[in-house]
Hints:
Blueprint: E1 6-10, H1 14-25, E2 29-34, H2 59-78, E3 83-92, H3 103-106, E4 110-112, E5 120-129, H4 131-144, E6 148-151, H5 157-160, E7 166-169, H6 175-178, E8 184-195, E9 202-205, E10 213-217, E11 221-225, E12 229-230, H7 239-252, E13 261-272, E14 277-280, E15 291-296, H8 302-317
Parallel strand pairs: 1-2, 1-7, 2-6, 3-9, 7-15
Antiparallel strand pairs: 3-5, 4-5, 8-11, 8-12, 8-13, 9-10, 10-11, 14-15
Helix pairs in contact: 1-4, 1-8, 2-8
Cofactor: FAD
GO cellular component, one term: cytoplasm
InterPro entries: D-amino_acid_oxidase_CS (IPR006181), DAO (IPR023209), FAD-dep_OxRdtase (IPR006076)
Amino acid sequence: MAAATDVVVVGGGVVGMTAAVTLQQRGARVTVLAADDPADTVSTVAAAVWYPSHTDQDPRVLRWARETHAELRRQAADGVPGVVDRATRMLLRHPYAGPPWWAEACGDLVAEPAEPPYTALLRFTAPTVEMTPYLVWLRQRLAAGGGRVLRRRVRRLADAFDTAPTVVNATGLAAGRLAADPAVHPVRGHLVLVANPGLTVSTRDEDDPAGITYVHPRRHDVVLGGTYQPGVGHTAPDPDTAAAILRRCVALVPELAAAPVLGERIGLRPARHGGPRVEVDPDPAGPPGSRLVHAYGHGGAGVTLSWGCAAEVADLALGG
């Protein structure tokens, strides 16, 4: 029997943790170096609804989205903490020219007529993930297989080779510095949380001229969004933005009019010009025989692409 490969994953968000679990499933001994506790990662700020938001029409991205959709639906059926299937309504304002490029990834999309100002209504099933319990579950799953999560902030990727000869760089925004990649940039996102008045269906209006608008119910609250602000790197509260989100979401789903506001979430999506970087680095800057696999730049689609991307990361890291 071949000896197990030691792999260290740098980054404890959803991209890093799904890669770690997948690597372990392939027989690797895995250590995760996480700079933050799960509650402090940008993954926990995300609305975490399956949807290839602001992604390119790339066959690789489509494959990751399709594989992730299937895996999350399996997890929802198995009762994995935080994962549920959610019926989704997507309202369009532009002329409908057929199913979107990502439709085959979800498999059940249907189009219907809509009342003005909308041109069409798309219905499909989108898994929704509550990230706090989900990240805890991922860590527990890794630990059950003998993996480790260490609280450690890596200053240089080369230092990670002290832990294992194979390193996966899933550091999100920090990859801009750690991998010297000027294409990495923040995209500010602002969400408002309100009490759930009984909603069970997600609704989104990506074409609202006042800003992207979406309503995603969860067990005890509803996530209202949102904003997509490339290059904005601060997370300071903005009452005007929060009020505008509320107005748009109540107009879209009037049942929210009396829902108490529970709080706000502001985070920085780890985007990258040119799309996600998932590849072996030809110059890993480690000792002879070392391997560095990059897995960053997923923007706001980290959850949407996570499990499919993790499978490719495992192939690259283990030489598949």
